[in-house]
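User: Structure please.
Assistant: Input sequence and predicted structure:
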Amino acid sequence: MKTITTTDALAAFCAEAAKRPYVTVDTEFLRERTYYSKLCLVQLAYQDEDGDAAVLVDPLADGLSLEPLYALFKDHGCVKVFHAARQDLEIFYVDAGVIPEPLFDTQVAAMVCGFGEQVGYETLVRKIAKAELDKSSRFTDWSRRPLTDAQATYALADVTHLRDIYECLSTRLAQSGRGKWVAEEMAVLEDPATYQADPDDAWKRVKTRTQSGKFLAIVRELARFREAYAQERNVPRNRVFKDDALVELASTKPQSEKDLGRSRLLLREARKGDIAAGIIASVKVGLAVKPEDMPKADNSRAKLQVNPALADMLRVLLKAKTDDAEVAPKLIATSADLDTLAAGRRDVAALKGWRRDVFGNDALQLCEGQVGLAVKGQKVVTVSL
C-alpha cells in the first residue's frame, strides 16, 4: 500500500485521478480536543486499467500541501464519491474554502435506493461488495505516526469498497431515473452555509425552559461569546462552558468574578481570566438589550393544533408510499413534518421537489379530504372520496 508524503506525489496521483470518471474519498480525523477537526489522513482511490489505484495521503507530513487535492475537487470532469460526507466536507471547507464538485454521497444514494435510513458503510460493504470490514482500528489515534498495518488496511478499505458501492448505486439510479433525487440532496452538502457556524445563531441550539426576552437575550450573548471564543482558540465549546452552566449563568446574571465563584456548574478554569471576563461582559450586554431587540423563542411547533387521527393516517400513507418507492421514510418526512401537515401547515420539505411526487401530492389530498386509505391485498392504497 502506498502512502503519499510529498506534494509532487500527490499532484501526480491527482492528475491521474482527474482522467477518471470518479474518485472515491474518505478521511480520518480527530475532534475530541478541538473545535475544528484535525485532519490526519486522506484516502483516495480510482479504477485504472491495471486494477486498483488507491493511496493514503498523509497531511501531517512535513511540507505536504493539499493544493493538488483541492484542484481535483474543483475539476468538474471527475465525480468525488464519499460516504456520509458531511464531516469530511466540513474539514475541506474550513481548511481551504473548497467543496468538492460534482459530489456523490453513497449514504444518501443508498437511502434513495431502498437500503434503509442512515445506512452505514459497513452494511453497504456487506450487501453490495460482499465483504467484511475489520473494525478494530476504527477508534485508534490517527495522529500518531507511523500508522500500523492494521490502520492502513482499515483506512484503504474505506475507499476501495466504496468504488463497488458507487458503481452499483449509480447504476440503480440510472435505471430508476432517480439521479435527480440524489442531486437535490447534494445541493445541501454543496452549500457553504452548511459548514458555517455563526456565533450569532449559537443561542438557538441551547435548550431552555424559560422564554422571557431578557433571559434569552443573556443566553444569546453568552452563546455568542462561547462560540467565538471556541472558534478563535480551536477548543470544543463545552471546554469553555457547557450548556447547563450557560443556562445557570443566564439565570444568576453574575456581575463579577466573585459571583462566578458561586456557580455550581461552571468549570473552575472559567471562573477567572478571559472566559470570566467574557461571561461578565456578555451578561452586561444581555441585560442592556432593548425589549424590541430581545430574541424570541420559536414556539411555532409547540402551538400546533395537530389532528392526531390525521397524523396517524399520514404515517400510514408515508409507510405505504415509501415501501412502494423503496426509499427510506425519513428521507421523505420526519414525524414532526407529519404533525405539521396534520396541523394544517404546509411549510415542509415533503411538499417540494421529488418528495412531492413520491408522497406530498397524496398527503395533501388526504389532508384536504379528497382521498382516503384502503387495504388492497397486502398494500395500503389511496381511494378517491
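The chain has three domains: 2-195, 199-293, 308-384.
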